[in-house]
Amino acid sequence: MKLSKHTQIDLGNDKVYKIFWKYAIPSILATLAQCTAGFVDSVFIGRYVGSEGLSAITLIMPIVMFFGGIGIMIAIGGTTLAGIHKGKEEQEKSNNYFNVTIMLLSISSIIATIIFVTFSRNFSILLGAKGEVLELVVDYIKTLALFFLPFLLTFAFSYFLKLDGKPVKVVVIVLSGTVINIFLDYLLVGILGWKMKGAALATGVSQLIPWTLMIYIIKFKSSWKFSFPVFRIKEIWAMLFNGSSELLSMAAASIAGFIYNIIIIKKIGLHGVAAYAVALQITTISTSIFYGFAEAVQSAISFNLGANKLKRVKKLRNISIYTNFIAGIVLCLVSLIFGKGIASIFVKEQGTIEMATYILNFYAFAFVLSGINITLTTYYTAVNSPVLSGLLATTRSLIAIIIGLVLFPMIFGDQGIWMVVIFAEITTVIMGIVCMKRYTFGLVKK
Predict the structure, then answer these.
(1) Inter-residue contact 162 to 27 (CB < 8 Å)
(2) Is pLDDT at 3 greater than 70 in this prediction?
(3) Residue 332: pLDDT above 90?
(4) What pLDDT band is residue 7 in, cutting at 50, 70 and 90?
(5) In whole angstroms, what is the distance from residue 280 CA to residue 352 CA?
(6) Which of 21, 132, 148, 165 sits between 20 and 30 A of 325, alpha carbons compared?
(7) How many CB atoms lie within 10 A of CB 65?
C-alpha cells in the first residue's frame, strides 16, 4: 500500500506490537486527559462545594451519558467505516464518511444543547434532585450544555487523526485542554467561588483550544478533506448501526446509574450518593486506562479488516486483551492498597471517605475482568459487528446489573448492592469468550 505523505504509521504493514505501543501510550494519555476534566471538577467541587456538589454531578450523569451516547454512536460508527474503506484504498468514500460524521455530530450537539438548556430543571427533578442539590444540578448542566459542540467534535476529530496515523498529536492536543481545565477550575471554583457554574464553565472552555487545534491539523496536515458531504441513506444507516453498540452501552450505563442512584438514596441517603460519586471518579481513571489499551488497536483493526489481513486483526485483539488483563490486576491492587488515601483527595468528611473506600473495594476486584470486556466490546465495533458489541456492552452495563440488583441485596443485604459490579464483569467475560470462539471476526463472512 502506498502511504500518504501525511501518514506516520503504516497500519497495514508495520509490526503489530509496534502499532500497538505507538497507539497505546498516546491513547491512554488521551483517555486519561479526557476523564481528568470530570476528575478535576469533582476534586474542586468536593473541596469547595461539598458532598452536595458531588451528589449533583452523580445525579445528572445518567442523562448526560445518554445524550453523549448518541454523539459517540455517530463518531464511532463513522470512523470505523471510514477506516475500513481507507484500508480498501477507497479514499473518496472514506473521506465522505468523515464529512457525514462531522455534519451529523454538529446537528446533534446543537439539538442537545437546546434540549438541556430548556429542560434542565425537569431533568433534575426526574433524577431525584431536591432542595440545594436541585439548584446545583441545574447550574452545572445549563452551563456545560453550551459546549456540547466542541466536546463531541473534539472526540470525533481525535479518532480520525488516529486513523490518519497521528496518535501523538492527538494526545498533545488533548493534554493542552486538561491543563487549561485545571487552571480554570482553580481560578473559577477555588478563587472566585463560582461553584457548579465555575466547574462547568472550566470544563467547557477547556475544550475550545483542542477543538481549534484539531481543525487546523485536519485542514492543513492530514489526508482528510473538509467538504459538504454526500448523504446516502444506506451509508448513514450502516454508520449508525455500526455505532449503535456504543449508544446501547452508554444508554445501558445511564439507566443502571439512574437505578443505582435511586436505590442508594432510598437505602443510604444523599451522603451515600456522594460516596458513590467519589468511588466512581476513581473507577473512571481505571476505565480510561482500559479504554486506552482497547482503542489503541481499534483503527488498526478496522483498517486491516478492510485490507483482508485477518491474522493481523486477531493479533491486535489478543495483544489488547492480555495487556488489559495485566492492567486490571495492577489497578485492583493499587485500589485496594491506596483507595482510602485517594478518596480523601475529594472530600473532607470522614464518613464519606470510609464509605467511598468500602465501595471501591468491590470495584477493585471487578477491574481484573473489566479491561477484557472493554476490549471485546470495542473489538466487535471495530470489525463492524455492532450486534455482538451491543450484546456484550448491554449485558455488562445493564442486564447483569439489573439481575444483580434484584437478587444480591435480598441475599447479602446492602453489601449486595456493590457485589453486583463483580457479577456483571464475570457474566460478560463468559459471554465474551463464547463470542470469540464462535465469531472470531464478528458476524461478517470470511
Answers:
(1) yes
(2) no
(3) yes
(4) very low
(5) 13
(6) 165
(7) 21
